[in-house]
Specification:
This protein is of the alpha/beta class. It has two domains: about 15-180, Rossmann fold; about 185-385, Dehydroquinate synthase-like, alpha domain (Up-down Bundle), CATH 1.20.1090.10. Helices cover about 50% and strands about 10% of the residues. The strands form two sheets. It has a six-stranded parallel beta sheet with strand order 1-9-6-4-2-3, sandwiched between helices. It has a three-stranded mixed beta sheet with strand order 5-8-7. A hairpin with a 4-residue loop joins strand 7 and strand 8. The N and C termini lie far apart (about 40 Å). About 55% of the residues are buried.
Amino acid sequence: MDTKIISLRSPHLILAGVNSLERLGDEAKAVEAKKALLVTDKGVVESGIGERVQALLKKEGIEIDIFNKVIPDPDIGCAEVCIEMAKSERYELILGVGGGSSMDIASVASVMSTNPGRIQDYLGINLVKKPGIPTILIPTTAGTGAEVTPNAILTDVEAKLKKAIVSPYILPRVAIVDPLLSLSMPPPVTSSSGIDALTHAIESYTSNNATVLTDLFAKEAIMLIGRSLRTAVANGNNLQARYDMSIGSLYAGIALANAGVTAVHALAYPLGGQFNVAHGIANGLLLPYVMEFNVLGDIPKFAQIAQLLGEKVEPLPLLEQAHRAANTVKAIYKDLKIPQSLTELEVPKEAIPGMAKAAMNVTRLMGNNPREMAVEDVERIYEEAL
């Protein structure tokens, strides 16, 4: 019998499905917004999605300003510039439209508009004291799940490490997941964001904090992403594949928000902080190596992952089935035609001891890992990924 208390954190409202963006005006009116701030990046603006968002709000008589300076894997400095703009006017609503970077910056701007002090004061768990300005988060990628997670990730340039504001106040009032918005994603972004979502699903499924409820979301996410990621990369106009990826990413985000992720993310953070490796690439590259190490921590679940990814594993012994999971992920990653080793990313072997120590310090995530890791284990995983 599972004795864990089941809980579920999620936004006030989730709207998901084809053309769900059309509900934006109604939801903006529901918070009685007269003026809104759109937080996004230049790519979203150039794609025309920013224009659509503006039109839907203007139709309801809502004035809108735009902050379009979000950078990939944003640092604290990027967030500070957005916060300054958010504080300069009286906004009743902040919208984050784009990938995880735009949604995270929108969330940080929201809470920092109502809480005193600096961003650094809130890096950690449950340090935010007051709700922020209401937010609506709208992903244009299928990967981060930031629209449904209580985490906003920023790079601390001085520490050369990614850090998080973790608070229920980061969760938006509304998350809108419209698969049509992901049709404009180029193959490299589809690859890196998709493997990020798969990492979230697998890690939350095998987390020490997983429950029967988070397992429902995680298993469905693994199945949806496993069957559709390759197709979404190869044929971005395939709406069924885009739908599967968007809903799979959403489910993985819900599982992540409630079960947490594990050692893959802990090991990925130093790659991003020290070598500017994109978050999805870092996660995907390390995922099979960490999975292989973790197999003994939960053999039945890793065997289940192999099956969810479409592997015919019976009548193999259970342990052999479990090892098939990591091999299947390696095959998916290879088909995505993105960097296959740390060497390709110009990460030198000499950096491994320092990265291993930094990863071990991410105790919030290491504590979730299904198999206990020592610093020597982390070093070995990095070496295998070279």
